[in-house]
C-alpha cells in the first residue's frame, strides 16, 4: 500500500473534474495508438519484458478481468524474452494497490542487467 500522504495527494489531484477532462482528452490518441498496434505490432526482438497483471476482480470486472489476464498471457507467449507476473492483491491499478511487485521486478531486472545475467521465463 502507498503511504498516507501519497494517497491523500492521489485523491486530491486525480479525482477532480480537471483530471477527468484530461483523462478523456488523453484517451482518444491512446485508443488510436492501441488500434494501430493491431495492424503493425512492435518488434521487441529479444528485449526483456515483464507483464504484471492484477488478478483480483474489482467492481464490474467479473467478465473482463479474466479476459485481460488471458490477453496478457497471450502477449507473453508471443515474445521471445517475456514473463507474466500475477498481482494477487490488485485489480486494475497495481501501482497503487501492490506497488512492491513492480518495485521488485524493476530491481530484479536492473540487478540481472548489471550482473550480465539473462533469464528467459515464460
Structural commentary:
This protein is mostly helical and about 120 residues long. The protein folds into 2 domains: about 1-40, no CATH class; about 45-120, no CATH class. It is about 55% helix and about 10% strand. The chain is built from 5 helices and 2 strands, in the order ααβαβαα. Strands 1-2 form a two-stranded parallel sheet. β1 (about 50-55), α3 and β2 (about 80-85) form a beta-alpha-beta unit. It is globular. The mean pLDDT is about 90.
Features:
mainly alpha, about 120 residues, single chain, 5 helices, two-stranded parallel ribbon, 2 domains, 2 strands
Q: How many domains would you count in the coordinates?
A: 2
Number of strands: 2
Q: Helix and strand succession?
A: HHEHEHH
Counting H and I runs of at least 4 residues, what is the number of helices? 5
Range of strand content: 5-15%
- Calculate the terminal CA-CA distance, rounded to whole Å: 28 Å
The helix content, as a percent range, equals 55-70%
Mean pLDDT: 89
Extract low-pLDDT stretches. Answer: none
Choose one word for the global shape: globular
In short:
This protein is mainly alpha-helical.
Helix and strand topology:
Elements: H1 4-14, H2 17-39, E1 49-54, H3 64-78, E2 82-87, H4 94-97, H5 99-115
Amino acid at each position: 500500500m502507498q503511504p498516507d500522504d501519497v494517497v491523500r495527494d492521489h485523491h486530491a489531484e486525480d479525482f477532480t473534474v480537471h483530471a477527468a477532462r484530461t483523462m478523456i482528452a488523453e484517451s482518444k490518441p491512446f485508443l488510436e495508438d492501441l488500434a494501430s498496434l493491431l495492424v503493425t505490432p512492435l518488434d521487441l526482438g529479444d528485449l526483456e519484458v515483464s507483464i504484471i497483471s492484477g488478478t483480483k476482480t474489482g467492481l464490474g470486472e467479473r467478465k473482463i478481468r479474466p479476459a485481460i489476464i488471458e490477453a496478457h498471457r497471450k502477449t507473453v507467449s508471443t515474445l521471445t524474452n517475456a514473463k507474466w507476473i500475477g498481482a494477487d492483491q490488485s485489480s486494475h491499478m497495481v501501482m497503487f494497490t501492490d506497488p512492491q511487485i513492480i518495485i521488485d521486478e524493476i530491481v530484479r531486472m536492473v540487478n540481472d542487467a548489471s550482473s550480465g545475467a539473462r533469464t528467459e521465463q515464460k
